[in-house]
Amino acid sequence: MASQRKIIHVDMDAFYASVEQRDNPQLRGRPVAVGSPRARGVVAAASYEARAFGVRSAMPSVTAMRRCPDLVFAPPRFDVYREVSRRIRAIFLDYTPLVEPLSLDEAYLDVTDNRKRIASATRIAEEIRARIREETRLTASAGVSYNKFLAKLASDQNKPNGLFVIPPDKGADFVAALPIGKFHGVGPATTKKMNALGIETGLDLRAKTLPFLQMHFGKAGGYYYGIARGVDDREVRPDRIRKSIGAEVTFAQDLFALDEAVAALAPIVTRVAAHCEGARITGRTVTVKVKYADFQQITRRSTSVAPIASRAALEAAARALLHPLFPSPKGVRLLGVTLSSLAPAGEAVDSQLSLGV
Fold first, then answer.
1. pLDDT tens digits, residue range 207-219?
2. Where residue 273 falls among pLDDT bands split at 50, 70, 90?
3. Which run of H or E residues covers position 323?
4. Which residues are catalytic?
5. Binding site for Mg(2+): what residues are annotated?
6. DSSP letter at 331?
């Protein structure tokens, strides 16, 4: 039963930016953006000092600098981030083999039956956070609960460098008070649709019947029905292979030029590649999604014979799909990149064995 599980979600705090501040004392305490300050550059990650000014990942660099004139840019060092991620994962595996990475900087752990025979999941989370701090000089936030959905929500409650626990007898009440837009897995489009149906909070969602949710949301309706009641039976699966991994960004201002769109692809590709690296998988099919200012949406895809086993290869494939769409008389309000036809990285016949983000 899901109520019997002990699940921890660990999420590193502003991971890329924190690594840069750790390694460069001059950046500590200052607003830092990982990315390029060039005119067409995009922020890949932002420190908490930068976030206080409204700087966010996927934001154009010029907008970020306008919001925070003292913003300092650090070029990304993905080889370093990957190595730190490996050290953190080794800590996780000291406690349980049931580790499901979501990306380089976050993972689920099932510690119901753990290697150290520690009864308290909260104590394990505290130990893991302390070891991460000691061994990497970085901070992590953690959420502890009886299922994945609630553990993920919990890890966001006391960020940065925090711990939050949602016990079984508090799960349903916690969800009831939460705005629907805060639900993990409920994106902006679904939030808008739910709001139009009178669903503003978890309590509103709980009031809807299963047939109603299935009618409006299809197969996802059953999932929404469960999480509204604090129920999520998904297992932590270290060997889980998803059907696809994708990311997308809606822009504050529409993009018209090809070089703007190409620059905007970089952080999107980075997010997809980071997820693939964290889950140790590769893929062969790349899909680019474009939504125009008039809300027309198109997709373009290509499939390679060999696995796409590097971030550079993924970006090159996405760029090749994007180029024929320009020049365009319509502005682009959203870009997305998805990698599918997935397989474990160890099965790749390509000489590159990982996505090397």
1. 999 999 999 999 8
2. confident
3. none
4. 106
5. 11, 105
6. P
